[in-house]
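Format notes (please read before filing issues)

Several people have asked whether sequences and structure tokens are stored in separate files. They are not. Every record keeps both together, in the order shown below: the sequence lines, then the token lines. Line labels are part of the format and must not be stripped during preprocessing.
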Amino acid sequence: MLRFIAKRIVTMLLTLFVIMTLTFFIMHAIPGGPYSAGKRLPEEIQAALDEKYKLNDPLYVQFFDYMNGVLHFDLGPSFKYEGMSVNDLIAQGFPTSATLGLLSMLFTLALSIPLGILAALKRGKWQDTFVSIITTFGVTIPSFVVATLLEYFLAYRARLFPIYGVAEWKGYVLPMIALSGYSLAFITRLMRSSLMEVMRSDYIRMARVKGLSERQIVLRHGLRNSLIPVITVLGPTLAGLLMGSFVVEKIFALPGMGRFFVQSITNRDYTAIMGFTLFYAAVLIVLVFLVDIVYCIVDPRIQLTD
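Then the structure lines:
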């Protein structure tokens, strides 16, 4: 186990280094710069800014300076938000996005797993059709449409929830539902297909022969094995939810990371783009690693080997 963990940590660090290197050189290969997106600056001011942020140094020098900063957990200053570093932007936006993402994941799991089980056990019946309709809507309707409808009917017309902001806990409810739509539908379908496949297995037939009740078969044998594919997608899904959604955050005026991420691309804010990309990659890699650990908890037959 320890050897596996040590090997995975080394692999994770190498992956982050590759991502950081590719992002750095791709960003500097794009025509233009951090001051070309807005009003053109006088040459004297642009030269002073280039000197301040060391943009006149050779590219390899800039890369090693940036890598040194990353090793000290310093993602550099933002070129567009005066007086703020990329660390400040992440610290300001991530708590809201992370809270919304965790709530969305809990909401997704609380609904998708029971709905997937219901659809699998009632295959071909009205319950299966009902779940299929729900998941079809969840996959096909964009999150910004769901967010707009929820805001209009439940916040503006019914006055049940705040229209914008997260000053109180109710402010998270509508964004959580809007953000969960696609992942809820996807995991429900995955759970349904996985449980249906497991219930056709030989050991399930043997359990029925032994006289176990259908409830015991589903809970003791079917559910645990059918959760493996669901656990596989939890890492990337949770990482995406934690990083926020620009559209949903924009509609509900939430101070999350989504707006910083999109605005950094629009503003060609080099350090912000690289910092957000590296942060997202780190979150994703760590969650995928934790998924491997959860595999062994759910199914003891799976052994972590190098």
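For reference, the curators noted about this record: The chain has a mean pLDDT of 85. The first helix runs from residue 2 to 29.
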